[in-house]
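Before surveying the methods themselves, let us examine one representative protein, pairing a chain with its fold in token form.
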Amino acid sequence: MVSQSPAQLDRVFHALANDTRRKMLQRLAGGERNLGELAAPFNMTFAGASKHVHVLEAVGLVHRRVEGRTHIFRLEPAALAAADDWLHFYRRFWTEQFDRLEAVLKAGDENASIHK
């Protein structure tokens, strides 16, 4: 299990709460990108894209490497792993709930076919 402070985890979820930032992370999952490549799919200025990237970078979701005047970004999955660890409990909870619902529905189907 990846350990993070509650405040750090809050910041990760805050960063992930924005659709533009989630889409930027998806693009970075395909490999490194420069700021222009990250901004391209969105109708925003480089300054706007830079603000989004800064939020991702501040929580450790993105790493920046500078080559001359070009800033190259890559995905840093460790912060995502911490969020996934936290969500794991709820995934288990919902899986158990869906398993119970499935059992109830199957029992209902069996009872319905018996009464036909």
In short: The radius of gyration is 21 Å. Helices lie at 6-16, 19-29, 35-39, 46-58, 77-114. Strands lie at 33-34, 62-67, 70-75.
